Amino acid sequence: MSTVNLILSDIDGTLLTSEHTIDSELKATLTQTKHPFVLASARSPKGMFPIVEELGLKDNPIVCYNGALIIKKNDKAYDILSQHALIKNDIYVLLEKIESQFPDVSVSLYSHDEWLIEKDDYWVQQEADITKQKPTKTDFKTFLAEPMTQVHKLLLISDAKEINELLLTLKAMSFEDFSCYLSKDNYLEITTNSVSKENALKEIAAYYHVPIEETMAIGDNYNDILMIQLAGVGVAMGNAPEDVKLASDWITSDNNHNGLSRAINQCFK
């Protein structure tokens, strides 16, 4: 097995069980692991901070919004290491398309550590329960009209059929700098083209001065595939879809049976 000096890990479906609790063996495993362990997720900073605190990872970078915002906590809030904001005109075009053709799709807008919504609905409540966050209601157009505002990600949620129809519609449209991908079968994430966990792995490896071939990446879903393929050691969770497993070097246990901890322990035997 390749030498590993840096680990990049997904959160939901990887570090967290299906009950949204942290892998019970992970804290002890990380205590024995001397190499940096970095979290990479589609979550916002606020959605990641409780996990960072519980695992004692405050000194490590945090990859938010799949790499659209990479930060490091400080005593007051956080320092920005890198960020990639969406072009506002692309956001306006997207919102108009959803309003006219997909009015039942739940839309969340993420700016730095803010989670913004225009209306509360079933999907917003479900996401709030998962992330332990509370969104702020606002008028999107008013928010976007402020010249200094930045949007790092949009999250579109509905049933899987409607989200796939929306995905096909957006792919047929023209945008300036816009990427859309499924993080779950009914979760459509919107970021700039430069944002991916693959690119985040490159940025984190450069931050630690670790060659890519000495990195390990672990994940469970489609947005983890490029990161898993790039890493020196790419590991898929046992609960991952078949396409993710095929992209990996090997497969660990699922997220309800300490798959993340077991993968790390296996790597450092």
From TrEMBL:
One Pfam family cited in the UniProt record for this chain: Hydrolase_3
Q: Which GO terms describe its molecular function?
A: magnesium ion binding; phosphatase activity
Question: Which Gene Ontology cellular-component terms appear in the entry?
Answer: cytosol
Stretches of the chain forming a coiled coil according to its record: none
Q: Which superkingdom heads the taxonomic lineage of this protein's source?
A: Bacteria
Q: Which PANTHER family match?
A: HAD SUPERFAMILY HYDROLASE-LIKE, TYPE 3 (PTHR10000:SF8), PHOSPHOSERINE PHOSPHATASE (PTHR10000)
Q: What is this protein called?
A: Cof-like hydrolase
